[in-house]
Design a protein that fits this description.
The chain is of the alpha+beta class and 305 residues long. It folds into three domains: 7-67, no CATH class; 77-119; 151-302, Sortase (Sortase, Chain: A), CATH 2.40.260. The chain is 27% helix and 17% strand. It is built from three helices and nine strands, in the order H-H-H-E-E-E-E-E-E-E-E-E. It has an eight-stranded mixed β-barrel with strand order 1-2-3-4-8-9-6-5. A hairpin with a 4-residue loop joins strand 1 and strand 2. The radius of gyration is 56 Å and the shape is rod-shaped. The protein starts with 11 loop residues before the first helix and ends with a strand.
Amino acid sequence: MRRKIRPEDLSEADLRRLLVAKRREARRQRLDAFRQSGRLVDLAPAPGTPLTEGLSAIQIDEPLAPRSEEDLARERRKRLWDRVLLAVEVLAVAGLMFVFFNGANLLQRLNAEVAAALAQPTISPTPLLTAIVLPSGHTPPTDPGGARPNEAEIPEHLRPLVQSLANIPIPTPGPEHAIRIQIPAIGIDAPIVQGDGWEQLKQGVGQHIGSGNPGQPGNLVLSAHNDVFGEIFRHLDQLQTGDEIIVYTNARAYTYIIDVETLVVEPTRTEVLDPTVDSTITLISCYPYLVNDKRIVVRASLSDS
């Protein structure tokens, strides 16, 4: 029984020979058809040349010669290279996809950085500068020149600024502003005016412009002299924790309780004027008595009762 030949088992040379044989067979069949119809006239063949020469050079039904080891090895190498090239193409596509997505992420990050760099910062209002030194500073009344504002406390390069701050308009008192202060422990009962400049403190206790109002969140800052103009804050150093400070407005009275120790600070410690979250009160005066080179600071918090 003859072995059935599959096309993939044939080499390139075998396929070429089969194609040539098939073409010759087709040509012979056409000639026979022409001859039978009378459209072909046979000529005498040349001596020694058979009419069917070459037609039987290859017999299709005959088994083909087995393929050589060299052909099989060449085919295996070809298949191996095909797999290698396919793997390279897959890796190349994967690399391109990685570069694309990585580039997209990089571009997005760069855009975000550029946007952040170009974004304008949130502008917050600059706190109003209302003090270079703490209020109520003055020379002692025993000084040869008498009691007067003590410019020696102020750095020389900031003195023009202090003079400009002295021209800040004094606000008209409203119903929410403080109008009177009482401190029973040291016998104080005095009026409160707006502003804590030299002229305002001649009239009583001065409320620092821009500080909080009684009973409201914030720091209510009050100043007075200790050795001139009534010596209203003469005995602040005698106050103790738990003592009451009562501040009046046109509407009602507010009671503050001293809850921290009294401080003695340099005149430049203006942070005691800073606003607070809770409702507090800060009392300031020159110190010590008849020396006035420092400030005494008393801090109290609004009572819950």
